[in-house]
Amino acid sequence: MKSLLKTVFVITGFAVITRVLGFIFRIYLSRMLGAEALGLYQVSLSVFMVILTIITSGLPLVISKLSAKFFAKKDSESEGKLVSASLIIAVVSSLILVCLVLIFKNFFSLLFTDDRCYPILVVMLPAVLFSGVYNVFRGAMWGHSNYFGYCVTELFEQIVRITICVFLLSFGIGSLSPEIGAGLSLSIACCLSMILAVVLYFIYGGRLKKPGKIYREVIKSSAPITAVRFLSSLVQPIIALIIPARLMAAGYTASQAMSIFGIAIGMTLPLLFIPITLVGSISTALIPDISAAVSNEDDKHVNNRISSSIIITMFIAFFMIPLFIGAGENIGTFFFGNTTSGALLASAAWIVLPMALTNITSSMLNALGMEVKSFVNYLVGSVFLFLSIWFLPSVIGIRALIVGMGTCVSITSILNIWMIKRKTKIKLNILKPFVLMALFTIPSAAITFFTTNLLTDVIPLFFNLAISCIFGAAMFLILCSIFNLINVKAMFVEAKKIKIKKLNFKKFKKNAK
């Protein structure tokens, strides 16, 4: 557990910085582009992400697993062949996909509800090739458990993208529209991060070898994963196409439909995904960890990892939910200057829990070799998502997306947990913590809501949010401590031990001098 926590700490540290920068970037984009242009950008990005999934889903995971196996056996020859073969597959596949988008321009133009979306997609296309190469070398570093190299490339990409996008939107280049500039910054950032990944791979001792016959193994292993993730990724662009159309059918103008969609996707969902940053770190560390334990038939290790990770995930989600419920409107106003995004955040706070559980349990199923079953569970949940976004916009507007997403991830997470229990024969014992934490959100959300409204117009919004969220978080932690869901005393003891170790190390250095 200590090794896992150390890994999670490293990944989380980078992930938090990367996500915070990404979050700030979204705030900047929302203010620079406006709701309508942001909607155009999000629709184009959703289609781009489907194309990217084909290149960057199966390959990195297979590379990490095989690379870990070769690295453990000190078989650098096979590892070099693996990376070379994967690189060729990624480049060829990327070029084919880019050509298809350019050749079938009319199809993609018809696919979008607005003609302005296709040019945005085109300027993003170079990022497909760059990301394909980038993910091959990044996957190899992941297999070596080189989480520093794995994470620093992602952070670098975020920093470069923000810098270039701010430059393009602030100074402009010719007649580039803001949404085109945002798409172009993505391609440039992916190019530079690809170069960094290649350099780091060779610095850490990686080599390329003549591929030989390993192509077949790579394609055979990655094809099912790619197919599963490609099909699941189709959900996002379908949503991006259906929601504006159904809102327009319900009486919205094209501009209103795109604006409210941009607010929901570009302003509200990024806030809801904040807890997923921590859960994603756990997921990243779990895949090679559980895969190795499964290979070694260490059932006790697998069971311990699964149980503890699910409970930690529940705690992270429940910790954030009352803050979103109680201070949602002010959060949306503070970050995006948009009360609608805040109102949507407050009403959508509940879906943080099933989203987090779906994230962690899907990673567990992948590590257990059950990727296809994980995808089937997601498909079952997606049926309810599509029914919601098709029939409910005329009744509840954009909140149809919230209801649909919440239902989808709730069903998916329940099915995932059930399959994990069947596969591992584990007793999770998560019902009691779930019920208690769910009950604790009520007083925590209430005190957050009461405090934020009490302080409205009394102190600046930033301090209002800080104080109200601290009160809500403190209430939740106190209740969890009283009912022994977390051990605050143990946390302080551990912190004290770390402090003593640091002091002793400083004394040792001083005496050594």
Which properties best describe this structure?
globular, single chain, mainly alpha, 513 residues
What's the gist of this structure?
The protein is an all-alpha fold.
Provide the low-confidence segments as ranges: 490-496, 498-502
Query: Which structural category fits the helices and strands?
Result: mainly alpha
The largest sheet, given as strand count, sense and whether it forms a barrel, is:
none
- Percent of residues in helices comes to over 70%
Total DSSP helices: 21
Strand content: under 5%
Order of helices and strands: HHHHHHHHHHHHHHHHHHHHH
Shape annotation: globular
Helix and strand topology:
Layout lengths: L1 H55 L1 H15 L3 H28 L1 H7 L5 H8 L1 H18 L3 H25 L6 H26 L10 H20 L1 H15 L4 H19 L1 H22 L3 H38 L2 H10 L3 H16 L3 H21 L1 H4 L2 H26 L6 H24 L6 H22 L5 H25 L1
Helix pairs in contact: 1-3, 1-5, 1-6, 1-7, 1-8, 1-9, 1-10, 1-11, 1-12, 2-3, 2-6, 2-9, 3-6, 3-9, 5-8, 6-7, 6-8, 7-8, 9-16, 10-11, 10-16, 11-14, 12-13, 12-15, 13-14, 13-15, 13-19, 13-20, 15-18, 16-18, 19-20
Describe the 3D structure.
- The chain has 513 residues and is mostly helical.
- Helix content is 87%, strand content 0%.
- The chain has 21 helices and no strands.
- Helix 1 crosses helix 5 and helix 9 runs parallel beside helix 16.
- The chain is globular.
- The two termini are 36 Å apart.
